[in-house]
Amino acid sequence: MATKTPYEVPTEMREFAERSVEQARKAFDGFIGAAAKAVDSAHGSAETARLNTHEAARKAIAYALPYEDMFKAALFGRGKPLYGATWADGKAPTGETFPIPQPVKTDLAEAKKLLTAAGFPDGFSTTFSFNVGQAGTAEPMAALLKEALAKIGIKVEIQKLPDAQMSTLINEKKVPFFTEGIVAWLPSMDYFYRNFYIGPIRWNYSSINDPQITDWAQTARFEPDMAKYAALGKQLNTRHFELMPQIPLWQPSQDAVMAPSIEGYVYQFHRQIDFRDLSRK
User: Fold this and answer.
1) How far apart are CA 177 and CA 156, in angstroms?
2) Mean pLDDT of the residues in the chain
3) Weakest-pLDDT range from 22-26, 164-168, 206-210, 234-238
4) Residues 234, 114: Cα–Cα separation, whole Å
5) What are the pLDDT digits (tens) for 124-178?
6) What is the distance of C-alpha 151 from the center of its chain?
7) What are phi and psi of 203, to 5 degrees?
8) Strand 155-161 vs strand 125-131: parallel, antiparallel, or unpaired?
9) Residue 279 DSSP class
10) What are the distances in angstroms from CA 73 to CA 43, 205, 254?
11) Which residues contact 197 (CB under 8 A, 6 or more apart)?
């Protein structure tokens, strides 16, 4: 007859314990998995809420800007406004080009409503930056912008920065609100979107990462059918207004001043003087 040590666990009890531990482990694993899914779901909801908040805040600023006053003070009206358009059905009227005039104008009541929807009924504080090289146009614009945003509770501190410092801060994504010019030598619609709205690069000033913009822009890049290209452009232009990652203001004129005796000036896409055609009477 076999004898058992005083502290030996009977076989039946050991099997029961092992089954219980395994069941407990499975239950715990299931709980952890469910908790992880719940956290992921909550994170996704929080991320969606965060993005919606940013979108509403950007649009609030867009509706508060004093476009006409800035256009006259900064450019003396010499350029093409990119505001004040009417989109009949809320969709972009064209897709062949970008930028196009946006269906936005100064509307402080709408701006205040959007700011409240974004969770900032009393406004917030931020900075508005521009580089010294742009001071001629950016300084009067900044003063008007600061005054206008104060009306909806947004307090703005103006920062005029050396060009090199401004470039560094933009590259490091450390300026929350600033003005910058976007220029394309080859101004095709898809080029603008691919270079200024996609990827973790310096020129993606708004740091936007929207799957639809990325997909449509990359598809348009290699689309030979102009009708399909324009259709993709309409989707992109409409999406741009929905998200408002940047607020287009205007396309300034490039004025050339010369003596009456000079002839043959030709505008070049690289914005530099081409002396080959110049002559003097």
Assistant:
1) 10
2) 84
3) 22-26
4) 25
5) 999 999 999 999 999 999 999 999 999 999 999 999 999 999 999 999 999 999 9
6) 24
7) -80, -5
8) parallel
9) E
10) 45, 25, 17
11) 204, 206, 208, 210, 213, 217, 240, 245
